[in-house]
UniProtKB/TrEMBL annotation, chain A:
<dbReference type="InterPro" id="IPR050388">
    <property type="entry name" value="ABC_Ni/Peptide_Import"/>
</dbReference>
<protein>
    <submittedName>
        <fullName>Peptide/nickel transport system ATP-binding protein</fullName>
    </submittedName>
</protein>
<keyword id="KW-0067">ATP-binding</keyword>
<dbReference type="InterPro" id="IPR027417">
    <property type="entry name" value="P-loop_NTPase"/>
</dbReference>
<dbReference type="InterPro" id="IPR013563">
    <property type="entry name" value="Oligopep_ABC_C"/>
</dbReference>
<keyword id="KW-0547">Nucleotide-binding</keyword>
<dbReference type="InterPro" id="IPR017871">
    <property type="entry name" value="ABC_transporter-like_CS"/>
</dbReference>
Automatic annotation (TrEMBL), chain B:
<feature type="domain" description="ABC transmembrane type-1">
    <location>
        <begin position="96"/>
        <end position="325"/>
    </location>
</feature>
<feature type="transmembrane region" description="Helical">
    <location>
        <begin position="198"/>
        <end position="217"/>
    </location>
</feature>
<feature type="transmembrane region" description="Helical">
    <location>
        <begin position="7"/>
        <end position="31"/>
    </location>
</feature>
<dbReference type="Pfam" id="PF19300">
    <property type="entry name" value="BPD_transp_1_N"/>
</dbReference>
<feature type="transmembrane region" description="Helical">
    <location>
        <begin position="256"/>
        <end position="282"/>
    </location>
</feature>
<dbReference type="InterPro" id="IPR045621">
    <property type="entry name" value="BPD_transp_1_N"/>
</dbReference>
<keyword id="KW-1003">Cell membrane</keyword>
UniProtKB/TrEMBL annotation, chain C:
<dbReference type="InterPro" id="IPR000515">
    <property type="entry name" value="MetI-like"/>
</dbReference>
<keyword id="KW-1003">Cell membrane</keyword>
<dbReference type="InterPro" id="IPR050366">
    <property type="entry name" value="BP-dependent_transpt_permease"/>
</dbReference>
<feature type="transmembrane region" description="Helical">
    <location>
        <begin position="15"/>
        <end position="36"/>
    </location>
</feature>
<feature type="transmembrane region" description="Helical">
    <location>
        <begin position="83"/>
        <end position="110"/>
    </location>
</feature>
<keyword id="KW-0813">Transport</keyword>
<keyword id="KW-1133">Transmembrane helix</keyword>
Amino acid sequence: MNAAVNPCLDIRSLSAVLPNGVRVLRSVSLSVQPGEVRALVGESGAGKTMIGKAVLGVLPPSVRIVEGDILLEGEDLGRLQPKARRTLMGARTALIPQDPLTALNPSRRIGPQMTDRLVRILGWSGQRADIRIRQLLDEVQIRDPDRVTKSYPHELSGGMRQRVLIAAAFAAEPRLIVADEPTTALDVTVQKQILRLIAQLQREHGTAILFVTHDLGVVAKISQKVSVLYAGKVVEEAETAALFASPQHPYTRALMAATPRYTNPFASLKPVDEAVLAGLASEIAAADQAWRRPHG
Amino acid sequence: MLLQRFLIRLLTMAITLFGVAVVVFVVIRVAPGDPIAMMLPPGATDADIARLRALYGLDKTIVEQFFIWLAGVVRGDFGTSISLRQDVLGLVFNRLPATLELAIVALLMALAIGGTTAILGARERGTAVEAGIDIASGAALSIPDFLWGLVLILLFGVLMPVFDISGRVSPQLDLPFVTQFYLFESLVRLRFDLTKDLLGHMLMPAVALALPLAAIISQLLKQSLKEVLDLDYVVLARVKGFSETQVILREALKNAALPTLTLVGVQFTFLIGGTVIVERLFSYEGLGNMAIDAVINRDLPLIQGIVLVFALLFVLINLAVDMTYAVLNPRLRHG
Amino acid sequence: MDDGRISRHGSGAKLWLAGGWLLLALLAALFAPLVAPQDPLAQDLMFERLPPFWMSGSEPGFWLGTDSLGRDLLSRLIFGARIAFVVAFAAALAACLVGSTLGLISGYFGGWADRIISRVVDVWMAFPPVLFAILLVAVLGTGLSSVIIAIAVIDWTRFCRVIRAETMGQARMDYVENARIAGYGRIGIMLREVLPNVVPSIVALLSLEMGIAVIVEAILSFVNLSISTDDPTWGGIIAEGRLSIHQAWWVLVFPLITLILTVLSFSQFGEGLKARFDPVLR
């Protein structure tokens, strides 16, 4: 297989269920080309974080994948042994987490938390890892790397911690980064800086990003392509510009109507139209019926 | 801030020890029965009794006796044992090392067993392995050390007589030791034959003492590990490519161990309290065994001395745990 | 959610098993003269160290064998249950009354009362409990009441610590504030509003304490300091069994199994009851 023609990430009709039989993902298919930012947008509970976790192999034990494949640069992750899979993922993927307050170990200094992947998984020397980390800290505009690497997480602000996490994510030059609502937990003023920083590093490093968000404004700023998710199902997929210009699916239109900034910043915030949701619900119920029959 | 915390703890410690001294003194003095009468051969005259009472200070009022004794204690003079006619402090120091070695070996065992099962249970959470660990630790916790001791005596002393169930060391051995820390000294002197014999004697009582504590450590640590394992920084470590075992050891263990630590301190004092009966059960020549003899012989000065030494040990352990917690917790350290 | 349901099913089964064993032992104790096959004190040197019924050399009527004085082991265990249960109920109740009252006062009123009670608890916690018990019985003189008093004097702190902590939690709740605004007195609120909410914990501790009391009594008998009459006690049988362990292992095995089952049952019964009556856990 030729890696050049393979998408960086290819998810093929992925379905997952909870122990009580509720489906959280319904035949999700999406792909991310090398160097591309793919936004995954939907309301909370739509399953967007679940997709990110499935890609990285960190789904909670209760969630079970019942069908579909995840391919990373043409490699079927489901077929790999756990150890091989971990090593591959450690080298080629990274995560920018949602909440920088909880994503750093409170009892370890920042420096080792940034270098441990490079040294322990990828086998770099400590010195090489240190140099690399300083380089990245410089790229995320942290001017006093000595102090930061020697700090404990609680000694840094939320924005600083998110910069640290972004630097750590890019440090190993992964092919794919899953960014899981990386700005949601931050102050509005910091959000913009962080978003700009991610976009800048993404361009310079040419990393593909699966960008999970509920915010269409963020989608417009950062992504080239969008998948709109509702109740674990991709309802619309398009180039970002095309989606905003002419949303096809009623749910997408409703979602955009509920986000006033882009259509009309002065309009009041509207909830997603009830009629649209009712239509979707019956559509999904029918799909579930059809899905259950062959699977027993 | 650390120093202030330390000084406050030191003060409460002194108050607690004073309280223990008062309680044990009062309890012993209200005892009916005259310890002096037991020391003398039948047919001793009243004058003999009076002379001995004066010798041990038993002719004074209870308050006078208390302060005389306390003044002695502060100077390091715990009085003279009535039944053994030796200096109490000397007797206690002679026996304390045996008890300390037993307690420490038991603690290490409890940490090893509890820690391993907790990590295993957390790694295999939601599986039959975890359920098995839960059942085992539930049983180990509910059955006290006294009963564990008896079970071990039956299993390994009678059914499969592989371990010694009596004494501290085989009596036929020549001991070159100058201190009473036999185990420690045998290691330092590289006399591993003696180490083996000592450990062989210590194993059963130590396991009996360790099992309930191991169960507590296992349950508590597993619970907090499982809580920590759902946190974002642990998920991030998995994404980095670390295996579940590595994730637990590198990321989760230290943070999960902190809440367990404070409890282990209190539980370790319970373990030391348990040495009293377990030493008796295994005829292990430690402080607790001597304490029971002292009570049976109504040896007042010796009982007081032993109880006070146990109390001192308990408060020192609590102090040590409190300070370790303060030092280990970075948030507390940096205020 | 699911985990909770499963564990509650488990605790239900455990509750019935534990309760069943305790009921059996209690009935045996109550009707000991009727159910015991032999006189527990009758010595018969012809029948010394008889093995239990399934082994060769056993005699009919001596189901679990006999000890070195030829006394029937099963009958001694059944009569021993009488002392065990009397001690368990009396000592645990006494410890519970003293400890829970002090814990309620300490936790609800706080201030000086709390400081003094907590200091006393600290002093008590600095005693090795077994040594303390042995010392107390030695001082009070052997006998049933001494054993009960000694256990209560030592173990009230267990109730005090737990009930104090729970009361402090409850006292911060809104409903206590509401009751105060409604004009109830402090003691009235403590008894009417706080006490019912800590009752599940008291019940669980009470059951646990009964098991501990049984053990402490056995330990005291073991060092020959318990009730010191001819009445058989579980600890006394164990002490006897420890001595003749190489000649007659059954004299140690059966009382040991009895004690383990009883202790396990008391602790599981308490936990099961708490799970059943605690509105939060339910």
